Amino acid sequence: MSIKCDLVVVGAGPGGSMAAKTAAAAGLDVIMLEKRQEIGDPVRCAEGVGRRALCEMVKPDPRWIASEVKGAKIYAPDGTSIVMSEDKSGSEVGYVLERKVFDRALAMDAARAGAKVMVKTRALWLLRRDGVLSGVSAMHMGEPLQIEAPLIVGADGVESKVGRWAGIDTVLKPKDIHCCAQFLVQDKSINDEYCEFFFGNSKAPGGYVWAFPKGEKLANVGIGVQGSKSGSGMPIRLLKEFMKSRFPDGKVVEMVTGGDPSSGVIESATADGVILVGDAARQTDPITGGGILNAMKAGIIAGEVAAKAVSSGDVSKAGLKGYEDRWRADIGRHIARSYEYKEFFVKLTDDDLNQLIGSLKNEDISKMDLRGMLRVLFRLNPKLLWELRHLVI
Amino acid sequence: MLTVNRYKCCYCGACVGACPTAALELVETWLEVSLECKECGICTKICPVGALEVKA
Fold first, then answer.
1. A65-95+174-261 has which fold?
2. Count of pairs with CB atoms under 8 A, one residue in A, one in B
3. Residue ranges of domains in chain A
4. Is the separation of the CB atoms in A138 and A145 below 8 Å?
5. Which residues does residue A210 pair with via DSSP β-bridges, in sequence order?
6. What are the CB-based long-range contacts (under 8 Å, 24+) for A239-242?
7. Are B17 and A256 inside 8 Å of each other by CB?
8. A347-368 per-position pLDDT tens digit
């Protein structure tokens, strides 16, 4: 079977749905493909987002907000903890979402805007006519399906193939992927008010352990380990160890895993007839691991640029330059900075981490943003942070 | 040969993103291994649950 449209969006996560919704609202005939039979499930995510940035893009809905948090509590390897307030601790706390509901809500918004959504439909390769991209070959419910379209948005996640098919190297080196495992935990000792972060090289090599509350003594308790420091099954083993020490009576009611890109800004997120969005474009923040908001922002930009490119008839890489320029100027800048932080952070010993977090113990950081806190950290630990001085000053 | 312990695999796709030869593909709950696999073993280190193994 063969069908035609203006734009195919591969992947119905937050990035894909925002791209589909934006492009459809601008008048394009859009088909969004999701290889799974259910959008949003299984989740691969800690589900934390910054409230303000999210609300700029979608109207908050209690059906997909699991809980609201006051801020972040950060634990050093020696157990010392500091507290950061909600709107200052970067963009990764605020709401803890119910991604299963959230992802579906965004896909339904895209559908309402006019996009066609096809589930259990997997893109197999890109079609070309006379060397020019002409659509996607897909499989829908085990049957072949050809979709002719001048432009493809690849929002196909960490396991993205669209970029590779288009000649963009998106392979994640082991040092640039964080290997994650997460339990949904019920326990009376869960902190319902703060997102908690636990650091330590024996707890989570090159990463951290988190506990993000989902309300009523439930939390996503998860771990991210830098791929180059991981080993077969290490994340799940370390997470179980953490559970034993922190939540010995915790009941695990769900288990998920995932790979989180932490490779920084990729060289190109476009090719002739192709735009990459979200995890597929490695737009995750390398230091926090947060990717939802970046994917949504990139999705909106991609949808706008797609609408212009298709109507003008120029979907070449040059014609899609607006996407590159806009995402790089916005989220790309932050990702580049975070990547430098990450490269530094993964080298820190437990003593370094104890010193850094401990140095803030007597400082009033409650009203500081991440940058302000870094300035204080730099003032208190100039020798340790000397490498980062260009980012701080 | 790369083997997938399907009783263990949580089908998250982390291995797919790290595979240098694009030999892996995740189809719902099913991880496909193609002939492109060079048995480099990167995916076995990346897998969060240890479901992948290169066996002689």
1. D-Amino Acid Oxidase; Chain A, domain 2 (3.30.9)
2. 99
3. 2-44+101-172+265-342, 65-95+174-261, 349-392
4. yes
5. A197, A222
6. A239/A181, A239/A182, A239/A183, A239/A209, A242/A198, A242/A203, A242/A209
7. no
8. 999 999 999 999 998 887 776 7
Neighbour order of strands in the sheet with A65-68: A48-50, A94-97, A65-68
B12 in contact with chain A, both atoms CB, cutoff 8 A: yes
Minimum-distance CB partner of B14 among A160, A170, A259: A259
Cα-based torsion angle of the residue sequence A188, A189, A195, A196 in order, rounded to the nearest 10 degrees = -150
In angstroms, how far is CA A373 from the centroid of its own chain?
23
Structure tokens at A255: 């288990």
How far is it, in rounded angstroms, from Cα A172 to Cα A161?
12
Q: How far is B2 from chain A (nearest CA, A)?
A: 13
Query: Domains (ranges, CATH) in chain B?
Result: 2-54 (3.30.70.20)
Average pLDDT per block of 10 residues along chain B, 56 residues long: 97 97 96 97 98 94
List helix spans (H) across chain A: 14-25, 51-57, 99-112, 162-165, 234-246, 292-312, 321-327, 333-345, 350-359, 370-380, 389-392
Q: What is the pLDDT of residues A29-86, one digit of tens each?
A: 999 999 999 999 999 889 999 888 999 999 999 999 999 998 889 999 999 999 887 5
Match 């040059």 to its residue by tokens.
A318
Residue with tokens 């922190």: A246
Write down the pLDDT at residue A91.
45
For A213-234, write each residue's pLDDT tens digit.
Answer: 999 999 999 999 999 999 999 9
Strand partners, A275: A153, A270
Pick A2-44+101-172+265-342's CATH classification: 2.40.160.40, 3.40.50.2020, 3.50.50.60, 3.40.50.300. 3.50.50.60
Two structure tokens written together for A366: 């409650």
A interface toward B at CB cutoff 8 Å? 35-37, 42, 44, 122, 157-161, 164, 170-174, 177, 179-181, 225, 227, 230-236, 255-259, 261
Q: Print the SS3 string covering A91-142.
A: CCCEEEECHHHHHHHHHHHHHHCCCEEECCEEEEEEEEECCEEEEEEEEECC
The 8-class DSSP code of residue A173 comes to P
Location of structure tokens 């859009």: A30
